[in-house]
């Protein structure tokens, strides 16, 4: 471990995590652009966006099971090459299937980053896993802030072509590829601790692990599902709805960067219960308030989801350490599976709620084709806003269920520890 340059590897991991975040943020602003340019429904766009989550899940599960065998460095190489290929293919996409395949490649790249970097960090910082994971995962919302501001800037200067925003993602991609180049990587914590591969597999099917994996589906559906669609759901709340995503991500980044020490000293189950309550309140409020109050509601939601992902990984790593890199990979993969499931579901709910809000005697085709500044255009904007806010109220059901699940976990843990 003396030759392992921890700081350099940690910094490179943070830059690598910025790339998936930039893709996530910019994709959120592409929803309406793709629907218009390629004549797609929101449900179809949901399937395209969702394939990134499916690719992530596959890469996390397979990468996590192989990282002990082929090494962290090779998994990172897979991430780099898939990122480059995915970005380029997205830029030259011509329709549904080309977007589907390129987004899948991006997902595989993003999952490979998680499969490599999560066990890398827990192996280097065995005595402060949750704190370091929070600081590492702070760079995901930080990347979303950067991506959101790029989209906002492009809109301000009239550069509405989404391919330019996608091309910028190549810069941090080449940066992390260079930062990882020729670096020596540590062995994973499972190997160092002496747990066998059989111990790892057994731990990953234990009742506690399976319970946490199921909860991971719900926490990530709440976080990733909402954030990926927030700019589209509340597109008519302001001239630049992408700033709402930037606001949420900014609060998350600050909370993870500076709140890691605080939650390190708290019971993880209480952190998860509190997070679920705040996420529920924030979603309900966003479904009812208007104007500047939407940002206040979004702030509450952001504080709720900020610690979901790193705290779930930290709980598993600390309470089921024999699950090793595969356990972290499965949790991350299951998390993005929740995000994948949420994408078309949210798209379908949005479509259904939008159609339900259309006044009697009017048709969606006429309203969508209305010229800007006309009464029909104003009516269509209000209908879309109603559909979006109603969708957020539906999503609030998920963190409500999580409050009950994490309360059960807290009570169980007090009795068995």
Per CATH, the architecture is Up-down Bundle
Could you say what the CATH topology is called?
Answer: Growth Hormone, Chain: A
Helicity level: over 70%
CATH class: Mainly Alpha
Distance between the termini: 33 Å
Number of domain units: 1
CATH-defined superfamily: MFS general substrate transporter like domains
- Form type: globular
Individual helix count: 19
Largest sheet: none
Low-confidence stretches: none
Strand count? 0
Question: What would you call the structural class?
Answer: mainly alpha
- The average pLDDT value, as a whole number, equals 84
- Tell me the strand percentage band: under 5%
Radius of gyration: 21 Å
H and E string: HHHHHHHHHHHHHHHHHHH
Overview in brief:
By secondary structure, the chain is an all-alpha fold.
Structure description:
By secondary structure, the chain is mostly helical. The protein has one domain: MFS general substrate transporter like domains (Growth Hormone, Chain: A). Helix 1 packs across helix 6 and helix 11 packs antiparallel against helix 18.
